[in-house]
Specification:
Radius of gyration: 19 Å
Number of helices: 1
CATH class of one domain: Mainly Beta
Order of helices and strands: HEEEEEEEEEEEEEEEEEEEEEEEEEEEE
CATH superfamily of one domain: YVTN repeat-like/Quinoprotein amine dehydrogenase
CATH architecture of one domain: 7 Propeller
Strand order of the largest sheet: 1-28-27-26
Largest sheet: 4 strands, antiparallel
Strand content: over 45%
Mean pLDDT: 92
CATH topology of one domain: Methylamine Dehydrogenase, Chain H
Length: 342
């Protein structure tokens, strides 16, 4: 635990130095303290519906819903322990990564049906190519695919390890980063078959974020060990370059309007990577956010990045020597929504 705290402190100090040295156009525009109890994981912007979703775990599991423009509360959806929610803007059907998965009406927030799934639903992704929702699990089956219109299970996919985040080229190819295997699985959206694995070992490990520049076929894979953004060609898996990011990343988004990737980190930083061309990338800025703001979502209407965080108690000791310390407990009523923009 002492070793972790020392390393964590060094990472924070380095992040602060990077942020000071790389001033830029982005800044923390707004912090809205919304309080409440329970843990948190993913945050999801429904850009078309102008709503913001995030799940709260613990004694009162639920999905909180906010107005994306004002951040005023709209309502909440009671559920079992969940990690997040994803929306199909065409059908206005939402899916909560609980067990069972809860399908709901995104306009009324009323439940539609419960979908029995195996594994432990965690991450989520909606692919507009054929209107399917991908529920990611750290347990077998690793990926469950659901038809967004009917709420029926289309099939499952064995991607060979624990999936964390997914991206799509919109033309039938799904990319899923495999956190415990240091690779990216390529999936055929029509057949649900894994067609390739792009190896990242030696360049980045424990990759917990994935985003895509669809136009130029570029993948951005944010890794924790070391804290690195691995940038690769989506067509053949060849690594273009690697760049340093902050510590404890857990999410990446890409804005095609500005040609920038944003990696959110639990050390209280947001790394901004500029794509000058498909072969030229630089760390444009490191924005100071807040401790614990490890997940993020992009509002493509305003070009703002939204993060969530809360104050935590000190981390728990590792379960075994040299192991990873556990996350601290969320301090009640300390939960906040952060908005980063220009």
């Amino acid at each position: 635990m002492r070793r972790f705290r020392l390393g964590f402190a060094v990472a924070i100090a380095m992040s602060a130095l990077i942020g000071f040295a790389q001033e830029g156009p982005y800044k923390l525009l707004k912090t809205v303290k919304v309080g409440g109890i329970g843990g948190y994981d993913y945050v999801q912007a429904d850009v078309a519906g102008r709503r913001l979703y995030f799940a709260r775990s613990g004694a009162m599991p639920r999905v909180n819903v906010y107005n994306l423009d004002t951040l005023e509360p709209i309502g909440e959806i009671p559920t079992t322990n969940a990690h997040g929610a994803v929306i199909d803007p065409k059908t206005n059907h939402g899916f909560i990564t609980s067990k069972p998965v809860l399908m709901f009406d995104a306009k009324t927030l009323m439940p539609i049906k419960k979908i029995d799934v195996q594994g432990n639903p965690d991450g989520h992704f909606f692919d507009s190519f054929n209107g399917r929702v991908y529920i990611l699990s750290h347990e077998v089956p690793y990926v469950t695919v659901i038809d967004a219109k009917e709420g029926s299970i289309v099939g499952t996919i064995d991607v060979g390890g624990m999936p964390e985040q997914a991206a799509s080229d919109g033309k039938g190819h799904i990319y899923i980063d495999i956190e415990d295997k240091d690779n990216i699985a390529v999936v055929d959206a029509k057949t649900l078959a894994v067609t390739a694995h792009y190896d990242l070992s030696g360049k980045g490990g424990t990759c917990a974020g994935l985003a895509m520049d669809v136009k130029n076929h570029i993948l951005f894979s944010a890794c924790r060990n070391p804290a690195t953004m691995v940038i690769l060609n989506a067509e053949d898996g060849k690594i273009v370059t690697t760049l340093p990011i902050g510590n404890l990343c857990d999410g990446v988004v890409f804005n095609p309007k500005t040609m920038e990737a944003f990696s959110s980190q639990g050390d209280g930083t947001l790394t901004v990577i500029k794509e000058n061309s498909p072969t030229s990338f630089v760390v444009e800025q490191t924005v100071q956010t807040k401790q614990g703001a490890r997940t993020s979502t992009l509002d493509t209407k305003t070009n703002q990045i939204i993060l969530i965080t809360a104050e935590l108690t000190p981390p728990t000791p590792p379960k075994e020597p040299g192991g990873r310390p556990g996350r601290g407990q969320v301090i009640p009523d300390s939960f906040s929504i952060l908005v980063v923009g220009k």
